[in-house]
Design a protein that fits this description.
The structure is a homodimer of 87-residue chains. With 87 residues, chain A is an alpha+beta fold. In chain A, strands 2-3-1-4 form a 4-stranded antiparallel sheet, with helices on one face. The interface between A and B is large, with 40 and 40 residues. Strand 5 of chain A pairs antiparallel with strand 4 of chain B. Chains A, B: Its EC number is 3.1.-.-. Chains A, B: Belongs to the CRISPR-associated endoribonuclease Cas2 protein family. Chains A, B: Pfam families: CRISPR_Cas2. Chains A, B: Homodimer, forms a heterotetramer with a Cas1 homodimer.
Chain lengths: 87, 87
């Protein structure tokens, strides 16, 4: 499945969240990672993040696409990071 | 179609990009908007943004889902903004 992870966390936790995210997904731009991932690895990513973020102050959203067949990715301006081999 | 818009732009253009984005989509968290939108309105949103961003320095990515039937949205922590009636 294809996942887009976006996060809005307090400054002191940004590096830690990014470091965890990059173990599983491709950094795309500020606060955004994406990529192909298995169910098991997504669960592991989520539990690592849960141990790191503040449930009251931080927000991490996963958009999970079982298939990218009905999806498309368009960009304006510069491609800052990688592209998680989005079809 | 359902669209997730993420942006990474220079500080002096953030407010303008957010203001334009909010005319078409729901603010979700820092640098992320989402929502149901027609093809025509997406084209209008993109042309407004093109007039505002720097093609060399800024980055705006649209993840476009023709259907949300094969997609899911999961969140860790707090829901900061709205939720664009993602199924």
């Amino acid at each position: 499945m294809y996942v887009i992870m976006v996060y809005d966390v307090e400054e002191k936790r940004v590096n830690k969240v990014l470091k965890i995210g990059r173990k599983y997904l491709t950094w795309v731009q500020n606060s955004v990672l994406e990529g192909e991932i298995t169910e098991a690895r997504l669960e592991r990513l989520k539990s690592e993040l849960k141990r790191c973020i503040s449930e009251e102050k931080d927000s991490v959203i996963f958009y999970i696409m079982r298939t990218t067949k009905y999806s498309e990715r368009q960009i304006l301006g510069v491609e800052k990071g990688g592209k998680g081999n989005f079809l």
